């Protein structure tokens, strides 16, 4: 999207500049003491996320003649969470709020999202993998594990999962408000997808129970098994992604991580 389109939309009195991000579709707009965060074609349920206080407040939404939708949110002075911050009580509480939000679930359902089934994830992995990765013994062992454990992955309660709980997607405002941003990959799925990623990546294992106590869930054998399955699946997808991008250092790092996961299976 051209910045001049935004200038036409907002007026000459606004100073517009790129706001970073992987897509290059985010902008900052400043007019004296007013500042907005602008994005093209944000997640369609941004309004519900805003109403729930999960993302910074939505100010307005406008549709352009070409069909693009521009959203404007309050610019929040904030910082990204550090890995060590992910053990904060507010992280567990906000994730619980998200997973228990009927409004988010209703909206995502109305948008046509089908619940994500573990078999769908396994099928997706097998269809994506390159022949080179598919032939690796480590990958073969991981796929065999996913297939073997598939019957144990049934979990009735499906919730809205963010599916990318990297610490960079959590913002802590100067007023100590916590937000979770970048909802483009949200799915209706087993909450173990989100919980597993967060615990495995950021929380020491001997602190899992305390974190889950704050979240409000017991550390059962079923939850352990489901988290492990989803983390292995996500790790294979990360290896695939970095391999496709020819980022060998990250790909090798994730392969080593996968080796460690399988040794504990």
TrEMBL record:
GO molecular function annotations of the record: transferase activity
Aminoglycoside phosphotransferase domain: residues covered: 21-216
Keywords for this protein: Transferase
Family matches, as Pfam families: APH (PF01636)
PANTHER family for this protein: CELL CYCLE REGULATOR CCRZ, PHOSPHOTRANSFERASE YTMP-RELATED
Protein name: Phosphotransferase
Record lineage: Bacteria, Bacillati, Bacillota, Bacilli, Bacillales
């Amino acid at each position: 999207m051209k910045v001049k389109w935004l200038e036409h939309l907002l007026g000459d009195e606004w100073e517009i500049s790129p706001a970073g991000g992987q897509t290059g579709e985010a902008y900052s707009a400043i007019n004296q003491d007013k500042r907005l965060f602008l994005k093209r074609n944000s997640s369609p349920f941004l309004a519900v996320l805003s109403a729930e206080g999960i993302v910074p407040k939505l100010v307005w939404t406008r549709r352009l003649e070409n069909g693009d939708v521009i959203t404007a949110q309050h610019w929040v002075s904030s910082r990204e969470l550090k890995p060590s911050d992910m053990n904060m009580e507010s992280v567990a509480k906000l994730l619980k709020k998200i997973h228990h939000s009927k409004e988010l679930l209703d909206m995502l359902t109305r948008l046509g999202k089908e619940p994500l089934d573990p078999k769908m994830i396994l099928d997706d992995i097998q269809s994506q993998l390159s022949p080179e990765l598919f032939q690796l013994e480590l990958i073969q062992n991981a796929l065999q594990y996913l297939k073997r454990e598939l019957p144990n992955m049934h979990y009735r309660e499906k919730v809205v999962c963010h599916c990318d709980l990297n610490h960079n997607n959590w913002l802590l405002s100067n007023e100590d408000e916590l937000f979770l941003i970048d909802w483009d990959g949200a799915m209706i799925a087993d909450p173990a997808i989100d919980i597993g990623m967060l615990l495995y990546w950021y929380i020491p294992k001997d602190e899992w129970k305390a974190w889950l106590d704050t979240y409000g869930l017991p550390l059962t054998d079923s939850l352990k098994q489901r988290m492990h399955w989803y983390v292995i699946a996500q790790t294979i997808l990360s290896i695939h992604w970095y391999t496709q991008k020819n980022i060998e250092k990250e790909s090798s790092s994730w392969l080593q991580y996968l080796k460690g996961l399988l040794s504990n299976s």
